[in-house]
Amino acid sequence: MRPSPSPSPSPSPGPGTGTASGIRRLARQHPAALLGLLLCSTGGALAALALPAALGHTVDRLVSGGPVPWSGLLLCAALTLAETGFDAVAAVTGTTTTARLTASLRTRTAARILAAEPRRALALPTGDLAARLTARTADAASAPVTAAGAVAGVLLPLGAIAGLLLIDVWTAAALLLGAPLLVALLRTFTRRTADAGADYQRAQSLIAHRLTEALEGADTIRAAHTGAREHRRVLEPLSALAEHGRRTWAVYGRAVGRSGLLLPLLLLLVLAVAGLRLHAGAIGVGDLVAASRYASLAVGIGALTGALGALARSRAAARSLEPLLTLAPLPHRGLRPVPDAPGRLELRDVGVEQDSGPLLTGVHLTVPGGSSLAVVGRSGSGKSVLAAVAGRLLDPDTGSVLLDGVPMDGMEPARLRREVAYAFARPALPGATVEDTIAYGPWTASPEAVRDAARAARADGFLALLPYGYATPVADAPLSGGERQRLGLARAFAHPGRLMILDDALSSLDTVTEHHVRRALDARAGRCTRIIVAHRLSSAARADRVAWLEDGRIRATGRHDELWADPDYRAVFRTDAPAEGAVPASRTPVAPGAGTQVPGAEAR
Q1: Buried-most residue among 33, 37, 176, 599 (CB within 10 A)?
Q2: DSSP at 443
Q3: How far is CA 42 from the centre of its chain?
Q4: Is 179 exposed, middle or buried (0-12, 13-18, 19+ CB in 10 A)?
Q5: Which DSSP symbol is given to 330?
Q6: Cβ pair 351, 386 in contact under 8 A
Q7: With the C-alpha atoms ordered 301, 302, 303, 305, is the resulting torsion angle positive or negative?
Q8: Strand, helix or coil at 532?
Q9: Rounded to a whole number, what is the largest CA-CA distance in the chain?
Q10: Which of 48, 45, 306, 301 is nearest to 181 (CA)?
């Protein structure tokens, strides 16, 4: 299996753009919870700051030899309980709010992806996209809670310095002497943590991308007997991941090591100065006790460094989500399709570009309403791109697409999806049960519609053999490729619109099943336009008209029996003889006027 390009790092927005506004938007979703968390964090910090003063005052009264200061002891106990209670409530509120914000951010990001043009939304590899929607959203969503909780981390050292100033200016000056070193330590820690975290996330995305790619190509890997090679390729970024993880812990280790050296020295300096001031009679024993507690609070930056590290990871995750959250939704002008029209489709000078070059160029095509059009061509000729443009899964870079005279880019997306039904070669099967899968769509199809659609797609036979019939969980249903295609076709039949597009959706069906499905499609003639991306001769022969694509351009349109005279057209099917039971119309001429012909597609 040939690996696809590795995910490239996402461009980071400049300072002050994107990331900060995204965090503010998250914070506005649960203001009451965040306000409660802020109040609890602040209350816990204030209780912790009040405790040394109350403790020092109580010690002074005990040392003085008077009666036992029960009021002071009760106050110290109350402050201790208040600090513990506030911290417990803050922990519960923070965890709950983070979970809610994560769910909200994942929903909003997924909605942006689904509302955008698929070509833009799926520019990232599948594995990288999955990593951003799971791990990155959790990291980014924790930012408001971490920021609210960090108030205590900032308030404690600032309040402790203020407490020392109230006790003794010289003792506070001793602490402030080491403040610049503490600030430099925190700044270096935050910057290096952010860099290591971003690199770690990129390595995670690469592993997720390669693993998803290997899972999708499992059959190819098994057939080529390259499992060991793929195992090495998928896990190759683990060395880089481990290196970035070691970098992160090294940053933490250096910060802890330096703080482990700096903070005790700073605390010793404060206590030494406080002891000298006590000896000089400038402060009392209670003041010394309070000063020691305030010094411990001021230099205890563990909570603050943890909060700064979490914020750094959150900002890195938010930067990786920014390209997804800024995806523009499909534009529309609120136009509505003509009621009860048969689905006339027009492509006017349609062109689609990609980095590698043009995929479609100058496509002019008109498909009369209610007719069927087979789109044929060699591999890479642009058939699936044309099918995507025809149903507005892809917007053309040039030209326009109209459905019954209404530009598709002007139709409201939800309304458009009710008018266009799709079936694919490898359909996704959402839903808990088989019935849910067929009913899944712009509206939930009724049980009767589900069963009628299954019969039309020739899926009712194998569904009856499943353990619980239509109620069988999809995960427990052993489905072949053809059976999956029939479920996808049934889902399209269950949601009829004026346009049905089958993108190679008959490729895994046997000849008999395809014949019955084609009869069900033909029964929709006159009221539903059918676009069939075809590889089989029989599919082209049964269509009202054929559009023959070559190198992204329409080489010719016409009836199959007319095009069959061209040897290049016959070469598209790699045979000059009848295949799959179809008899080329060139060998069985149709007499003029024989049968009823639906007006065909016209190419300009």
Answers
A1: 37
A2: S
A3: 35
A4: middle
A5: P
A6: no
A7: positive
A8: strand
A9: 124
A10: 301
User: How far, in Å, CA of 307 to CA of 302, rounded?
Assistant: 9
Q: Which amino acid is at 420?
A: V
pTM: 0.65
| CA distance linking residue 117 with residue 119, whole number of Å | 6
CA 96 to chain centre: 22
From the list 583, 491, 484, 499, the residue with the least C-alpha distance to 542 is: 583
The token pair at 175 is 């602490």
Residues whose CB falls within 8 Å of the CB of residue 40, separated by 6 or more in sequence, listed in order: 86, 87, 89, 90, 93
Amino acid at 187: R
User: What is the strand order of the sheet 499-503 is part of?
Assistant: 420-424, 499-503, 529-533, 372-376, 545-550, 553-558
Cβ pair 377, 383 in contact under 8 A: yes
Residues 408-445: tens digit of each pLDDT:
989 888 888 899 999 999 898 888 899 999 999 999 99
* Residues β-bridged to residue 537: none
Q: 3-state class of 150 per DSSP?
A: helix
Residue 22 near residue 321, CB atoms below 8 Å: yes
Rounded-to-integer distance, Cα 498 and Cα 336, Å:
13
CA torsion sign for 202, 208, 212, 218 is: positive
Give the span between the Cα atoms of 290 and 52, in whole angstroms: 5
Per-residue pLDDT tens over the stretch 48-78: 889 998 988 888 888 887 788 888 889 999 9
| Residues 410 and 333: beta-carbon distance below 8 Å | yes
d(CA 383, CA 528): 20
Residue 160 near residue 294 (C-beta atoms within 8 A): yes
Distant-in-sequence contacts of 220-224, Cβ < 8 A, 24+ apart: 220/1, 221/1, 224/1
Please give the residue that has the higher pLDDT: either 122 or 286: 286
Q: Report the 3 state secondary structure along 6-72.
A: CCCCCCCCCCCCCHHHHHHHHHCCCHHHHHHHHHHHHHHHHHHHHHHHHHHHHHHHHHCCCCCCHHH
Torsion of CA 496, 497, 499, 503, to 10 degrees: -40
At 379, list the tokens.
């591999």
Does pLDDT of 588 surpass 50? no
User: Cα separation of 124 and 25, whole Å?
Assistant: 24
Q: Under a CB-based contact definition with an 8 Å cutoff, are residues 360 and 552 in contact? A: yes
Residue in the block written with tokens 């529309």:
332
425 contact partners, CB below 8 Å, separation of at least 6:
485, 503, 504, 505, 507, 508
Q: Which tokens belong to 137?
A: 């959203």
pLDDT of residue 419: 92
Residue closest to 529 by CA, chosen among 393, 385, 375: 375
Query: Using CB atoms within 10 A of its CB, is residue 92 exposed (0-12), middle (13-18) or buried (19+)?
Result: exposed
Residue pair 324/132 in contact (Cβ under 8 Å)? The answer is yes
Beta carbons within 10 angstroms of residue 373's beta carbon = 25
The burial of 371, by beta-carbon neighbours within 10 Å (0-12 exposed, 13-18 middle, 19 or more buried), is given as buried
Opening angle at CA 603, ends 599 and 604, nearest 5: 130
